[in-house]
Structures are given as C-alpha cells and as structure tokens.
Write a structure and sequence with these properties.
- The chain is an alpha+beta fold and about 775 residues long.
- The chain has twelve helices and 35 strands.
- The chain has a 16-stranded antiparallel barrel with strand order 16-17-18-19-21-22-24-25-26-27-28-31-32-33-34-35. Strands 1, 2, 3, 4, 5, 6 and 7 form a seven-stranded antiparallel sheet that branches. It has a four-stranded mixed sheet with strand order 9-10-8-11, with helices on both faces.
- A hairpin with a 4-residue loop joins strand 16 and strand 17.
- The longest helix is centred in the N-terminal third of the chain and has 31 residues.
- The protein starts with a strand and ends with a strand.
C-alpha cells in the first residue's frame, strides 16, 4: 500500500535578471514551489497538489496554472511520466511550460532534510509590450491529444476573418490588438501520447473550430482592458456571451478560472466536455390525486408493481420510452453525430420534440458529468379512468353514499361526474378539462368548466336546538389553473437513505354564476334575503411538499430500523368574492394547513403523526346562509355538523396512528436470527395481514366568532373540543389504490348536544 505524505513548504520566489541572457527582451526567473506527493514505490514519487506559491512573477503564475490537477488526463496518477525521484528533472513539467511560452525551463524535484518536497523551476519568460499575448489552454477529458494552434498562418480564413472582426472592436487602437493577436496561442491538452479515438478526434476537430473565435473574444476584452483598465473580472464577464454561443450552456462549464497578471495572460478552461450522446428515460408518472398523483417510477413500482394495474402501466411506460428514443434518433441525436457542443437552443429543441408526444406531460434534462451525456427525463401521464365509491354514516342521523367517475386522456384532457345521496344532503357535479398547455418544463396551464349542485336538508346553523335549515347552492363557470411541479434530485440523509423531494404549486381562478337559497326560521337566517344570485370570483393557491426515501443505502436496514420515512406538508388559500344582484357584495377567505410525518422501516409505516389547522373569515355583509360551520366527520368530529357557526372560524387537530402489525411485533417475543445475518431485513420485508390496520387517536378544537347580529337560537358556546379514537383499514379493500380505506370510529365532545358521543363509519373505494 502506498502511503500519502503531504508536506507544506513556503514558496521562495526569486526573479533573477542575468546579463548573459541571449535575448534582451527575455528575462530569467526562478521559482520554488512546495508540493504534496504520494509514494509511488521504487524510490519515486507522484505529484498530487500545489501547497503554496508566493510572489507575483510571470513564471510563478505560469507554473501554478500548469500544475492545476483539474486539467490533467484522467489516468495521470498511474502514468510513469508523473513519477519523479529526488534530484531528477521533471521532463513532463518542462514540456508543459514550453507550451505556455517559457523558454528552456529546468524543473528539478528535491526532498529536503526535514522531509519536505519542492520543485525548483528556472526559465526565461518574455518581456516587453511587443511580446504581450494570451495563451489559451483548453482541457477536457474528451480531448486526448496535445496540439498548439498557430494563429499567424495567413492561410487560415477563419482566423483572418475573426482577426478583422475583433480588430474592428478595437478601432481606436487597432495596432494594440493586432500585436496582441500575433503573440497569442491556443493549446489543446492533455499530451499527444494518449491514444486517440474516433470520439476524441471529433472533439479535437470541434475545439479547433471553436477556439480561434473564443480567443478573439478574449483578445478584444484584454485589449479594452489595456486601454480602459476594466479589470480581469470584467474580462470574465465579457467572455460569457461567446462561451454560451460557442460551447453551449453556461451551466455546463465554468468561466475562465485563472487570469494571472503579467506580460503573458494565461486562460485555462476546464470541463469543456463535448456532449458524447443523448439518452431519454421515464423518470416519473402522473396519476390522478386519489391514486397518488405525481410519483417517481420507483415509488410507483413499490405501490402498484404487484398489481395488474401497475404491470399494465409499466408496460405502457416501456413502450413510450422506445418511442421517445426513436424520436431522438430521427432528429440526428445518434452516436454518429457525437461528440459536439450543443447550445441551449438545440437542447430546448430536443426537449420540444419529446414534449409533442401526447403521453408526455413534462420534460427536463441534465448533464451527467464524467460520461458527458445529456439525459432527458420525461413524465408519463397515461390515459386513465376510475370509479370512486364513498359511503359514510353515524349513529345520530347522517347516512350518505357517493359515486364518481373520472376519465383522463393524454395531455390532461378529461371529464368527471359525481353524485351523492344521503339522508341530509344531495349533490351532483360535472367537470370538463381542456388539454393542458405547457408553459415550461415543469409548468402546465389547465382550463376546465365546473358545474355543481348541493342541497342540504335539516342542517344546523349554529343552533343546538330548535328548527333546522334547508339550503341549496348552484355553481357554474370556467376555472383556469396553473400547476408547477418540481422533483428534486435524491440526496442522502443522516440515516444513510437516499431521499427525494417534490414540490407542487397550483393557482386557479374561477369566474362564474352562483345561486344560494335557504329556508328556515328568521331567528336563524336573519333579515338577509333567502335567495342570493350573482357573480362569484374564487381564487385558490396551494403548495405541497413531500420528502420520501427512495431506497435504503447499500440495501440494508440500520440497527434501529424504525426511522423517519415520508414527510408531507401543504397549505391552501381560497378567497371568494360574491357579488349578488340584490345584496351587498362580501368577501370570504379560508386558509388550510397540514403536516404529516411517517415513521417505519422500508416499505411499511409503523406509525404517523399529523397536524391540521384551518381558519376562515368573511365580511359583515355576508348572509347567515354562508356562515362557516364546525362539526361532522371532517372537523371537530364530536359535534353534529353545524352545531357551531359564525363569520369567523378556526380549528386545529392532531392525529396519530399506530400500525397494528408493528404494535404486535413490539409486544411479541423477539425472533431469533436467521442465517447470513439478515433477520432484520427479512422481518422488515415480510408482509403481515395487519400492515394495513392502524389504531388512530384524534384530538381537535374549534372556535367561531362574528355572530354579533345572530339570533338567540345560536349556540352559547363559542368553542368546542373533541376527542376520538378508531381503526382505519388501508389497502384491504378492492381496487388498485392502496388508499382505499374503511374507518370505524367514535368521537365525543363535552360541548355537544350528543352527550353520549357519535359512532361513525366511512368507506372509500377507488376502482
């Protein structure tokens, strides 16, 4: 095993002017560079890094640039030419310095008595303004040959043209630019002894074509600097445009990394990697919200991979992937056309080609460094149709059932219808969605037409006794919506898992007709009209965040397998402006927040904690028919629906659930280890009939206000608390969605008229 010996040594930089220099315009400099080395065996060492360089000499700047390891060939550590012994002259460095304009360089390696390592470099560098020039060095792993391009050859038409164009920009001092250009060079690295391939030969050809133009831009910027003193930082800024134009996207390679002062200006471009190929893959799938919404392919396989529904969509995904690859081939994105630099416009054009497929909802791309490949990631949105069945009831009076059908075509065109019938409520709704319009790689615009009818019979309106209210509402109109989805790259957390986050943002605007009518006691409804109709403007904004593990690091489970799994949080704001024809307009606003954290092992949630908060307010002109109401199964479940009502309302709830399978394992007898030490993995992977069963506990609180003109029938309690418990069955009912559930629960509130509490049941089935 070789042993690393890293030693720091202060650099002594000496500038020696000798009278015996052959050329009066050259001077000799001496530089001592402290370096770090690694023992290569056989009494030799391999250079690793520069420890320190002091001084501001030209030779010191050139040596520092030449020893940048980022510009070395990928296999340099194993090459003999990088191995040196004490007292030897380093021929590799001498050759490299000569390419940078240093005359007769001598590079000697030594080890001093204290075990430090240093290079002593002696060489002649140019002096005088007539020798001022730019040495452009382009390094890339794809460039496997070394060549210096002469810029003085009059036979090169492209260089002559660029020289003229660049000189025109220096019209006030053309002689200065011409002199600068005459003494400038371009070098392609690394060294020529690396075997060239067809790929690298193509890369060299591309760089030969681009380099003179880039150098011309640098010369113009430097010439301007000499006249105006704009500074090297502005030279870098001036290069941004030419670099983007000639070498592709700014995000794929850095601006010039070094511009040392001196008579010879040296610029080194690193990571100028030509694109070596283009790939495409399906990275995500977009499903309806009840089936999981947007999810990665890996998450989809975990959730639906063992079902016919999942197998069918994965097969469709494979077909789509083949089609997309064929589309890229038709555009010329084939191996024979690479390597090449690809501009942002070209990349966007390829993205547009993929986006034209009706089953693709979004396309993104990224550069894979090291391979030099451009990878496009598409989101697959298949055609879908599903049936939703919901039934709920309680021990007091509520019993209802709902049926809905949704159809989604490619590109997001779709329709849905739903109807519900219950002892206290009847409703119907219909919706048509126009095809999506893409506004960006992750942004869609939707236009839909909504229509809904809701009729509530015998509902409470803040009254604990007395007459009940009949209420009807009709809503018709178009809704425009923008959706933005961002999938973040997986990152490792402290537990060693790879996690991926997702952001969903949406904004919508509804403008349509609203009709609100009611029948009931004047003590409850007040003096406002029992029928209101007019224009309704509804604005919604929502954001959701989700962070979930992709896979276990190394495929193993930590010694303490229970840890944080999926985390989700979200917020929704809704503002409604109702403008009735015969009544004062009024505004309503509501904000809903939630956060949920799951804990468990891979593939199973052992327990979860969820918090919810909601608040709403409306102006004083609002009709009592529109009061916010608390109670029922959704909020402050120990109350009857509507026991508390008012113009302002807020509620908070905290819920926790424990998986009965993990609970049984916790209190059961520990199992003995199995062979190969994989007992923990096997236990985590083993499925139990109890995996979908959760014991749930719930506590919530609600408060209303804004009842200044309310009648005497309204409840005297402005607030109420509620406590509940129950059992939830997830994934045990028919249908592809594991979100299908059966809930049995009991809730009690000390402020409710139901002193014995409420027993309720809810069944949700997605087909």
């Amino acid at each position: 095993m070789s042993e690393w010996k890293v030693v720091g040594l202060a650099v002594l930089v000496f500038v020696i002017f000798g009278a015996a220099i052959a050329c009066a315009q050259d001077h000799q400099e001496k530089v001592v560079v402290a370096i770090a080395v690694v023992d290569a065996g056989g009494g030799k060492w391999t250079f690793t890094t520069v420890q320190s360089v002091d001084g501001d000499t030209q030779l010191g700047a050139i040596v520092a640039g030449a020893l940048k390891t980022g510009s070395f060939p990928s296999d340099w550590r194993t090459r003999d030419e990088f191995k040196i012994a004490a007292g030897e002259r380093w021929a590799w460095l001498a050759d490299r310095l000569e390419m940078r304009g240093v005359k007769s360089p001598l590079c000697t390696f030594r080890e001093d008595s204290e075990g430090s390592y240093a290079l002593t470099v002696v060489g002649s560098v140019g002096a005088g303004s007539e020798k001022k020039g730019i040495h452009l060095v382009i390094t890339s792993w794809a460039v496997t040959a070394s060549e210096e391009l002469s810029l003085s050859d009059p036979g090169e038409k492209i260089r002559a043209r660029l020289t003229a164009e660049a000189a025109s920009h220096a019209a006030d001092d053309p002689a200065s630019f011409t002199q600068l250009w005459r003494n400038s060079t371009v070098t392609l690295e690394p060294k020529a002894d690396v075997p060239a391939t067809g790929i690298s030969a193509g890369a060299i050809k591309t760089l030969r074509e681009k380099s003179p133009g880039l150098l011309a831009a640098i010369c113009v910027a430097y010439s301007e600097d000499q006249r105006r003193g704009i500074g090297y930082a502005k030279i870098n800024a001036a290069l941004a445009g030419p670099l983007n134009e000639m070498l592709g996207s700014k995000e794929d390679r850095p601006l010039p990394a070094e511009m040392p002062s001196g008579e010879v200006l040296q610029v080194t471009l690193t990571d100028v990697d030509p694109i070596m190929g283009v790939d495409v893959g399906i990275s995500a799938i977009e499903l309806p919200g009840n089936l999981g919404g947007m999810m990665t392919i890996e998450d989809f396989q975990k959730k639906y991979g063992g079902q016919k529904f999942g197998e069918h969509l994965l097969a469709e995904r494979d077909k789509l992937s083949s089609v997309l690859k064929h589309e890229l081939e038709k555009t010329g994105a084939v191996p024979a056309s690479f390597p090449r630099f690809m501009s942002d416009e070209k990349r966007q054009a390829l993205s547009g080609v993929l986006s034209r497929n009706s089953l693709v909802s979004a396309v993104g791309y990224e550069r894979v460094y090291g391979s030099g490949r451009l990878v496009y990631s598409a989101t697959f949105r298949p055609e879908q149709s599903h049936l939703n069945l919901t039934a709920k009831g309680d021990s007091v009076r509520d019993l209802s059932g709902r049926m809905g059908w949704d159809k989604t075509w490619a590109r997001g065109e779709g329709s849905s219808v739903a109807a519900s019938l219950g002892t206290d409520s009847t409703s119907a709704s219909a919706r048509y969605l126009r095809p999506d319009q893409r506004l960006g790689n992750a942004t869609n615009f939707k236009l839909r037409y909504d229509g809904s009818y809701v009729r509530d019979r015998d509902v409470r309106l803040g009254n604990q006794s007395g007459p009940l209210v009949h209420r009807e509402e009709i809503l018709l109109g178009p809704r425009a919506r923008i959706d933005f989805i961002k999938l973040a790259k997986p990152e490792n957390d402290r537990a060693g898992e790879s996690r991926q986050s997702r952001w969903d943002y949406s904004a919508s605007l509804f403008a349509g007709f609203r009709n609100l009518t009611g029948e009931g006691s004047a003590d409850l409804l007040g003096t406002s009209p029992n029928r209101l109709n007019g224009m309704a403007l509804i604005h919604e904004q929502s954001v959701e965040f989700e962070n979930a593990p992709v896979s276990s690091a190394g495929g193993s489970i930590a010694p303490n397998p229970v840890r944080a799994q999926k985390f989700a949080a979200g917020a929704k704001l809704e503002i409604t402006e109702f403008i009735p024809r015969s009544h004062a307009a009024y505004t309503m606003a509501r904000l809903d927040l939630f956060a949920r954290q799951e804990f468990g092992v891979e593939g199973r949630t052992d327990y979860y904690v969820e918090g919810r908060w909601s608040g709403g307010a409306m102006s004083r002109a609002a009709s009592r028919l529109d009061f916010w109401r608390l109670g029922g199964q959704d909020v402050v479940s120990g109350l009857d629906a509507g026991e508390l009502a008012g113009r302002t309302v807020w509620s908070a709830a905290i819920e926790g659930g424990w998986n009965l399978a993990s609970l049984a394992a916790k209190f059961g007898s520990p199992k003995s280890s199995v062979e190969n030490g994989s007992s923990s993995d096997a236990a985590a992977a083993k499925k139990s009939p109890l995996d979908g069963l959760f014991l749930v506990g719930l506590a919530d609180y609600g408060r209303v206000g804004g009842q200044e003109d309310a009648g005497g029938l309204f409840s005297s309690h402005p607030s109420a608390s509620s406590f509940g418990t129950g059992i939830r069955f997830f994934g045990v009912l028919p249908g592809p969605s594991k979100d299908s559930s059966l809930t049995l629960g009991y809730a009690w509130s000390p402020e409710s008229i139901r002193k014995s509490g409420r027993v309720f049941v809810r069944v949700i089935i997605h087909l």
